[in-house]
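Kindly inspect the following:
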Amino acid sequence: MKFTHMKKASILALSTLLLTACGGDSDDKAKAESVDDQKLLSLVQKTNYSTGFPPLFSDQMWGSTFEQQGIVRFDISDQIPLYYVSKDGSNPPAVIVNGIKAIEDRLGDIFTDFTLITEDLSVYRDNQNTQENVGNGTFSADTFKNSHGIIGGLVVAQGTGYYSKAYSDNPQSMCANASTAPYDGSMAILIDPTSTYSNDTLLWVNMGNGQCSWDSDIVTHEAAHALGMFNHLDGYFGSWSATAMDVLSTLYGNPAGTPYSSLVPKR
């Protein structure tokens, strides 16, 4: 990112554990019952607000710190660019297409069609570490963007889910994640003064770590993380559920920056 851009935006950083411990836990409670409006709005705040905000950056270095007062999310006044990366330039499989479609069936046509990108992402994996699925430190977001003519949006890839034994001995419990890079578990988002993500924010939906199974619900789950459902919600946002979709719909059915106390439920 250019330093001049940093001065008009603020950085939000999320911890690794928030976005990587995604293994497809069931949401039986949420599937069996709906929640009232008050509970729904409390879930929106619980998932979108992070106690990790604002990060401890000085005004002199970054221009400002961000004090989150309301919802932050992608700007959907234009469609969110959507990409699928594979070694051979193939189309995304139905399990991925259907996971994204579930979101658009509810929120509308918020994504572009998939743009196919041909690149062997395995070169960014630490291949000496066969028991985990972590990066080797060589991935550069700027290089990736420049190579493929990308500004921002959402990238989906297979086999790039971050799995580290530092967090779990069970690869199924870290089967997929949202992040800022393949084989990575961290996320930092530039937020514009409008409380929308900066237009050069590029987030990754990493599906599968080579030692687990996943389905369309997990694709929806990880995309929802990238869209602003940062924190898990016990009983409602383990894999996916009707309540989770109501939360996402409310998040995108209210203007970015709307104070949590002023949100209107969108079912």
Observations:
- The first helix runs from residue 3 to 6.
- DSSP finds nine helices and seven strands in the chain.
- The CA atoms of residues 84 and 92 lie 6 Å apart.
- The first strand starts at residue 10 and ends at 14.
